[in-house]
Amino acid sequence: MAGMLRALQELPCLAQLAINNVDFDNEAPSYLYSLSPALRRLEFSDLAYGLYLFFDAVFLQETIDTMHITRCNVDHVDWENVSCTELILGEIDARYDIGQILDHFEIVHLHVHECPSFHDDLLYSLMGSTPLSPHEDVSARTLCLLSISRCNNFSMGAL
After folding, report:
1. Rounded to whole angstroms, how far apart are CA atoms 159 and 123?
2. pTM
3. CB 148 within 8 A of CB 154
4. What whole-number distance in Å separates Cα of residue 53 and Cα of residue 82?
5. pLDDT in tens, 1-58
6. 57-71, 75-89, 102-116, 137-151: lowest mean pLDDT where?
7. Distance of alpha carbon 148 from alpha carbon 153, whole angstroms
8. Are the beta carbons of 87 and 62 closer than 8 angstroms?
9. Residue 12, CB half-sphere, CA atoms under 13 Å: how many?
10. Distance of CA 107 to CAs 64, 67, 82, 126, Å?
11. Residue ranges of E strands in the chain
């Protein structure tokens, strides 16, 4: 992973990065890599453990416009150090709590597709109601677009 991040750091005009189905070594790099300030779109898919390893080793200089996360383990990531305007979550396994991501983002556009951990309590928190879940900090004060599809633990009555 360190070799890949070192190479990415040398791309000053990198605007979009997609990492799909990569088995990173299970060792976090000991160096913090600074990616291009031009980076506007990040896409991750099928990463069992690579997501937290990536974010533990990378410094993002600017807010990312769009972050797309599909079929990844979203646990153990320090989401406080990640910022995006549009977040697309797809097929995140039920054992991973997507509320931990939403606790720290001021998202304008949120797309949630087939994420069992997107449930009524999380939606209530987003809308400013008294939360029944541990995500008291989740808020939709900047949310302009919410797209929900195939989330079976969410009910229309929650809207």
Report:
1. 8
2. 0.88
3. yes
4. 13
5. 788 889 999 999 999 999 999 887 766 667 899 999 999 999 999 998 878 889 989 9
6. 137-151
7. 11
8. no
9. 0
10. 11, 10, 11, 11
11. 16-20, 33-34, 41-45, 58-59, 64-70, 84-90, 109-113, 145-149
